[in-house]
Please model this.
Amino acid sequence: MIILGSTGSIGVNALDVCERFGIGIELLAAGSNVALLNSQIKKFNPKFVCLFDSSKANEIESCGAEVFVSNDGLLEALSKTSGKKVLNAIVGFAGLSATLESIRLGKEVALANKESLVAAGKFIDPSKIIPVDSEHFALWYLNKGGSISKMVITASGGALRDAPLSMIYASTVSDVLKHPNWTMGRKITVDSATMVNKLFEIIEAYWLFGDSLKYDAIIETSSTIHAMIEFRDGVTTAQMSEPDMRLPISYAINGEAVPNLFRPVDILGLGSLEFRTIDAARYPAWRLKEELLAYPSSALVLNAANEIGVEAFLDERIAFGRVAEIIFESYDKYSSLEPKSIDDVFLIDSEVRGYARALIKT
Model:
C-alpha cells in the first residue's frame, strides 16, 4: 500500500486500518512532520520514503528505506513502486500531480485529495478513483441500483454555524478552528466554516457520478447522516454512521470495513436530528454552487483563490470574511477560462494564485 500524506489525520487513520488488515506499506510520503514520519517508518518499514520539505531531509531516519524529497522526488518514488493502490491524502492542489502520475502508472487511487477532482476532474478517469471523503463514500455505498434523481450530501455547518451574522466577518483563527464535530487539519476546518469544502465535494460528486443527476447539500448538525440519495420513485435513502473516517478508508483500501471498528449508531441515543439549509448570508461562497455545477471546470479558480485566501487568513494577514471576497473577485476575473489540457490547469492555477496574492497585498 502507498500512503501519501501519511502524517495527516487521513494518513494516520489509513495506517491504522492497514495495520488492522495486515497490509504492508511500500511508500510513505509526508509534508514536514519529520518526527511522526520517523515513527511511522520504524513501525511500518516502507521501502520508500518521501518528504516534501527538503530542508528537513537530513532529519529522516530511513531505517534502510530509499529517501526522496520534494514533489519531483515523490513522482520518482511512485514510479519505483509495484503496489497497485495509492491513498492520496496530500492537502490542496499540491496533490494533483501525484493523482495524475498514479493513474498514468496504472494504479488505483483512493482519493482523499479532493482538489484533484475539483481542479482537474475534466481530465481524470473516475473509474480509477475510489472516493475516501465520507460524503462520497456514503453516496457510493447507497448507489446500489434504482433510478436516481438527486444526490444530497450533508455539512456540519462548521465552527461558525451558530455565531451571530454580525460577528462572522471578523472571526478569529481560533474561533474558526473550533470545529463542532470533527478533528481535521487547519485548512479543511476553515473550508468547513466558509462552506467552500462542501462546494468542493459537490464538484467531486459531479465528476464521480456524472452530469445527469442533481446535486445539493444541507446541514445536519451531528454529522451522523453523511449523504442521501433521492430516487425517481419518491424514495430517499440515507447513510448513517459514527463520524469516523476509518470507515471509508477501510472500504477504499480493502473493499470492506474493519470488523468492530466502532459501534453502530445509537438511534435512541441520538434523540433527534437537526437539519438546516445552507444560508448564503452566513456562507457567502455558497452563492457559487449553481454556476460551478453549470461550469465545473471553473472550480479550478475557486480552489486556487481559496488556497491563497485561507493561507493569508491562517497567517492573520486578512480577516475571515475577506476569504470569500478574494474568491469572488478572482472568480469574476478568471471563471470564463476553460482548460483544454492538464498543462492549462497548472497555468490557470498559477495565474489565479498570483492575482489573489495581489488582492491580499492591496
